[in-house]
């Protein structure tokens, strides 16, 4: 297993993707993102509460889409959804909450 250590206070999507892909994750595969209707917003929030970013997600024809907060776990090299998929109607609300979660 290849593990990279992100040592800086800041982190970006490219570093998260690099670490996960190098360790065999399919989360970032174009096919996976397309199938799930997921688009990654590039801003990452990292702090004492964790590392978070936001995705735009298609949640079905009736609802359309929404924004989801994702948490990156560097120890497990995993991404988990915080709350439900497409929970936020606006990007600003999702990013504001992600920023707050990172500061905890």
- The number of distinct structural domains comes to 1
Computed CA radius of gyration, to the nearest angstrom = 14 Å
Derived structural class: alpha+beta
Helical fraction equals: 25-40%
Topology of helices and strands:
Elements: H1 13-22, H2 30-36, E1 38-47, E2 50-60, E3 64-73, E4 78-82, H3 91-103
Antiparallel strand pairs: 1-2, 2-3, 3-4
Throw out a few tags for this protein.
4 strands; 3 helices; 104 residues; 4-stranded antiparallel β-sheet; alpha+beta; globular
Walk me through what this model shows.
The protein is an alpha+beta fold. It has one domain. Helix content is 29%, strand content 35%. It is built from 3 helices and 4 strands. It has a 4-stranded antiparallel β-sheet with strand order 1-2-3-4. The chain starts with 12 loop residues before the first helix and ends with a helix.
Q: Would you kindly provide a brief summary of this structure?
A:
This protein is an alpha+beta fold.
């Amino acid at each position: 297993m290849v593990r990279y250590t992100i040592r800086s206070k800041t982190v970006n999507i490219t570093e998260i993707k690099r670490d996960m892909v190098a360790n065999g994750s399919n989360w970032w595969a174009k096919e996976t993102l397309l199938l799930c209707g997921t688009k990654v917003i590039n801003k990452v929030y990292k702090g004492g509460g964790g590392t978070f970013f936001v995705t735009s997600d298609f949640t079905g024809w009736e609802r359309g889409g929404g924004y989801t907060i994702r948490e990156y776990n560097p120890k497990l090299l995993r991404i988990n959804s915080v709350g439900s998929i497409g929970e936020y109607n606006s990007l600003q609300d999702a990013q504001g909450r992600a920023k707050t979660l990172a500061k905890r």
